[in-house]
User: Fold these one by one.
Assistant:
Number 1:
Amino acid sequence: MQVTQMLTAVIAGGLLFLPLPRGGIGVSRHDMVRAREGAESNRVAFHGDFAGIDRDGDMLWTTADSSAAGGLALRIQPLGSPMTAAEPVWPVRAVVSGRDSANQPYTTQLLGIIDWQKGSLVLQGEVTAGVRRGSQVLEDGSMVDFDAHGTITFIPLAALR
């Protein structure tokens, strides 16, 4: 099974496998929601305007219109081949850079899907740089008129245990 098929099947099945730094464990969507609702979690709402394609060929959304003081940049790279670009669901890799609601800088590495028919975006991964390094991240959003709207939730490792 290809990685993109496995990722799509895993997300569709309701079980997310998060890349944890020390060996990794499977975390159910229920655990993610429970941790998200915990006192230690932190959410950043965003509305990103499509800014075009950057020089690396990634799609770029930017915003100054978020609960993050310094805005955010969302770069998405489709993982499929050029022949699969017409498909309604794309497996993607994403990098989000910005500042959280406490004005702390962060960079995340995420994997997930964009479902163009439903207009939905689901990404998960971890913070790779900044004060929240190692925290898990869940991004739920929608794509409306090619603009991205949604919420980024930071989940410290302690909240998952």
Number 2:
Amino acid sequence: MLNPRSGKFVLCMGALVLFVILGSVNAIYAQRTPSAATQRPVETSTTDIPVAPANVKVKYEGGVLGYPQKREGTLTFDDINSRLVFRDKKTGTELFPIPYSAIVVAYADNQSRRPTGAVVAAQTVPYGLGLPALLFKKKYRYLALQYRDDETRVVGTTSFRIDNNALLISTLNTLGAKAKLTRRGEIFIRPRPNRDDADRFETRLPLPQ
């Protein structure tokens, strides 16, 4: 049995780590580069996108003045009062609304991040055996909104994480229609108002981290 402090042991462990890393890279590359026979063109048509449900499960990521903490809940389309409402998951109470008329930009955002469990595993496993865990990243999907607040006269940006991509796209398109936004490419915007109205919104909130 090799002594863990011996040079041969360290060399063997290094070779094992290198072998695992190369195997993981090859597996990831194979998954991300499908053959030409399996590749499909990106579908850009929105005619077949279903209407989003009245309540959408999300995770609020911050950005609304007075509500800095991230939390899980639901987005509700309150068509009677023409607003988008976020409700807390635990209590079901309304935390804050965003009027449809206050939304100026809406779009779907994707970000790739390493899961917290992968980072912890890489830091706790000895001899670098946890390094392959750092190669894996998870894609997170968000509904991002830029809005104007009549009460505080600020312009802010908030986002809600939606795990399912199809649900994210349907939620975005449904919101764009209900808020009477104009589609520009893959985002929805509200045309700029008159200059007199635009001057009322000069303060901008920082982007959520």
Number 3:
Amino acid sequence: MLTKILSISGKPGLYKLISTGKNLNIVESLTDGKRFPVYITKRVIALSDVSIYTEEGDVPLKTVLTKIKEKEKGEKVQFNSKTPNKELFAYFAEILPEYDKDRVYASDIKKLINWYNILIENKIDFEAEEKEAEETGEEKAEEAKKEREEENIKESADKKDVSSGASK
């Protein structure tokens, strides 16, 4: 589901992708439900493409949101915009202890918590996409395996035809 949830540079909140056109996307605000066009000149990013810097690499946003959901037991995070930075960093260290302290700023954590709260308010299940992707990935792997087996059978049958034709 995070592939259809967008963040638009210069606009607060999150937006759901409704329709895609040649030069624009139609989005719906998750906070007030209003729809409007977003042109290709705007910087738009899907939440599925967002990751958090860690000391060992990057962690997908979905993983961080899932950890917050587990910690908060599916409830909203009770921070607001005036929460001191020390509290934000302490909270985030509980969620993702290996985050890169040099590249993750308080504003990033505030935005992340705001996004999480919006997703929870709108009952958007960001974990469901992962389960669906795993299932479809397994199905695709099985289909590919069957196709390879069928190709091998055809190839071996063709070789038999060629070899039997040559011996006559």
